Amino acid sequence: MESGDKVWEVFIQKKAGLPFKHAGSVHGYDKKMALQNARDLYTRRGEGRELWVVEASNIVAVPLDEADAFFDPADDKIYRHPTFYNIPDSVGHM
Amino acid sequence: MDKFEAAFNELIEKELKIEPRDWMPEKYREHLIRQVSQHAHSEVIGMQPEGNWLLRAPSLRSKQVLLAKIQDEAGHGLYLYSVAETLGISRQEMVQQLHEGKAKYSSIFNYPTLTWADMGAVGWLVDGAAITNQVSLQRTSYGPYSRGMVRICKEESFHQRQGYEIMMQMAFGTPEQKEMAQDALNRFWFPALMMFGPHDKDSAHSSQAMKWKIKIESNDHLRQKFIDHTVKQIEYLGLKSPDPNMKWNEATGHYDHSPFNWDEFWNVVNGNGPCNQERLDHHKKVHNDNKWVREAAAAYALKTETQVA
Ligand SMILES: [Fe+2]
Ligand SMILES: [Fe+2]
After folding, report:
1. How many interface pairs between A and B have CB atoms less than 8 angstroms apart?
2. Domain extent for B77
3. Which one of A59, B9, B48, B228 has the fewest CB atoms closer than 10 angstroms to its CB?
4. Domain-located, residue B305
5. ipTM score here?
6. Stated pTM of the model
7. What is the pLDDT of residues B67-126, one digit of tens each?
8. DSSP codes, B53-79
9. Hey, is the C-beta of B90 within 8 angstroms of any chain A C-beta?
10. Rounded to whole angstroms, how far apart are CA atoms B58 and B62?
């Protein structure tokens, strides 16, 4: 990459109360330019009321070959789900 | 077959999406890089024939509309460069490949835009053909490409309408304007149809791409869809079909068309169209003229964003 040019990941919040959502990425040399480029690229039609940009190199992810083991503990705890418990119909919605 | 390859095959089989960090065959990656970078370059080079009319648009309204449309195309180029970057190639490399003639862009943009009616024909037919293709690509198997297509299709919806609006103004205007509209239709019709690429029987790339579900519908299928859809739009304008053999075929349920001039198509693809040299020279010139801006931005960032921890 050309010196100083960086890739930033872009997150947009469409309305207050909604979570930020990943929109894609953008190039920029500094924070301010990354924000302005993200605005021009991703929010030309009122798609957002808030915008985050994060340098792509700062994102931490689970290595692909560890992913199975990493998420495995979530699979065998069925008692974390409401359907694990038997509650009589007569007590109403719970 | 290892578990990663099996997982890849299963995702394709079930029409789920492949994401950037998933394992994928090298050929799948290469095919996508070639297709997506070509798509990105097309969006960017495609700004030139329209930019040609920005300073000569006949009204302030038409100038605003054209400017907004061209800005969208720049955005489409950037979305697509981002998609390709998730596959491990940098934007700088892609631009370099374009400049060295190693990467192509859609040959439709190597035709000149001679009159204001051409702005109508481009929006109506060129964007129209591109939209037909892009709507289908929304279902492509590569996640970031698919998401980019969804975003692009949303933005494209006004491009074709603004083009058709210009065609209506010209076709329903003075006899001279109507003649310009007819001439633009005549010049862009066949090149627009050839944008869909070679016939299925001659397209080796496409069949592998369809197995991987990078492509969902074949070139001929999409082209026929576009023709069938566009005929009544030509009729509404009161213009003559540029193809004397375009007739409704009761048996196939589609419109027939003349054979295409593939020699012309390949000639333009291989660099000998009316504007190939001009388009590439212009891109290189602007890229080089703006070098100082990139250098200044890098120097400024270095000065203002150095960490003082
Ligand atoms: Fe576009
Ligand atoms: Fe467009």
Report:
1. 55
2. 3-274
3. A59
4. no
5. 0.88
6. 0.93
7. 999 999 999 999 999 999 999 999 999 999 999 999 999 999 999 999 999 999 999 999
8. TGGG-SSHHHHHHHHHHHHHHHHHHHH
9. yes
10. 7
